[in-house]
Amino acid sequence: TANIILVVAENMLGDKKVTVVFVLGGPGSGKGTQCSNIVEHFGFTHLSAGDLLRAEIKSGSENGTMIENMIKEGKIVPSEVTIKLLQQAMIKNENDKFLIDGFPRNEENRAAFENVTKISPAFVLFFNCSEEEMERRLLGRNEGRVDDNIETIRKRFKVFVESSLPVIEYYDAKDKVKKVLLHSHND
Ligand SMILES: Nc1ncnc2c1ncn2[C@@H]1O[C@H](COP(=O)(O)OP(=O)(O)O)[C@@H](O)[C@H]1O
Ligand SMILES: O=c1ccn([C@@H]2O[C@H](COP(=O)(O)OP(=O)(O)O)[C@@H](O)[C@H]2O)c(=O)[nH]1
Ligand SMILES: [Mg+2]
């Protein structure tokens, strides 16, 4: 008789076993800046969900106009769009360690990512920063972004508190959150 071995593969992407760290925090909290520092020292590949969405707009894809309108309004783009971009980027890259920056942004993003990819994060880095400081940074960012204006910034802060903080609370309840406070009061 044959021995049947059932292998339950976790965190598999195709035939690659991956380590994922989610990097979360409010708009302008310094996610992108610190991801660049982490990449230099720890061999991760940085995937910014926002950058992938902006590249999708530029590429002239059929979803481009919808994505751009949602970003202008500070709204969260449908999960399937963002998850597909993240999945493609991870498959394309030879690395097996990824910092996913700015995703998941709501509970639906989080659950859909886990269901579709079967990947759960090793841990979550949470950049905690005051709205006053984040607003100052976003207004000074100068990257020509359509969403770095005071009207959209206010909407993004509201979406962060109402939709994104619950994701951090979800992982906090699993002891997966490492909280980072990264500014002094006089910077
Ligand atoms: N610790 C910090 N102190 C002061 N300015 C910062 C700090 N970290 C990032 N910044 C600046 O704040 C702006 C937002 O940072 P960024 O990394 O793009 O944030 P996020 O990706 O979370 O939106 C950028 O202009 C960046 O140079
Ligand atoms: O998973 C994501 C990541 C980003 N965005 C959209 O892209 C914008 C910019 O995100 P990014 O992380 O680049 O910027 P941040 O607001 O953190 O500075 C957000 O406000 C959303 O509209 C989204 O819908 N889903
Ligand atoms: Mg960013």
TrEMBL record:
Q: Which CDD domains match?
A: ADK
- Name one cellular component (GO) term: cytoplasm
Q: What is its EC number?
A: 2.7.4.3
The UniProt entry, under HAMAP family, shows:
Adenylate_kinase_Adk (MF_00235)
Keyword Kinase on this protein? yes
Q: Which reaction does it catalyse?
A: UMP + ATP = UDP + ADP
Coarse class of the primary localization is cytoplasm
Query: InterPro entries from the xrefs?
Result: Adenylat/UMP-CMP_kin, Adenylat_kinase_CS, P-loop_NTPase, UMP_CMP_kinase
Instruction: Set out the biological process GO terms recorded for this chain's protein.
Output: 'de novo' pyrimidine nucleobase biosynthetic process; pyrimidine nucleotide biosynthetic process
Q: Which Gene3D superfamilies match?
A: P-loop containing nucleotide triphosphate hydrolases
What name appears for this protein in its UniProt entry? adenylate kinase
Q: Which family does it belong to?
A: Belongs to the adenylate kinase family.
Its function? Catalyzes the reversible transfer of the terminal phosphate group between ATP and AMP. Plays an important role in cellular energy homeostasis and in adenine nucleotide metabolism.
Q: Which domain of life is it from?
A: Eukaryota
> Quick check: keyword Transferase in the entry?
yes
Q: Where in the cell is it found?
A: Cytoplasm
Give the matching Pfam families.
Answer: ADK
Identify the PROSITE patterns for this entry. Answer: ADENYLATE_KINASE (PS00113)
One GO MF term, please?
A: ATP binding
Sorted keywords for this record are: ATP-binding, Cytoplasm, Kinase, Nucleotide-binding, Nucleus, Pyrimidine biosynthesis, Transferase
Top EC class of this enzyme: transferase
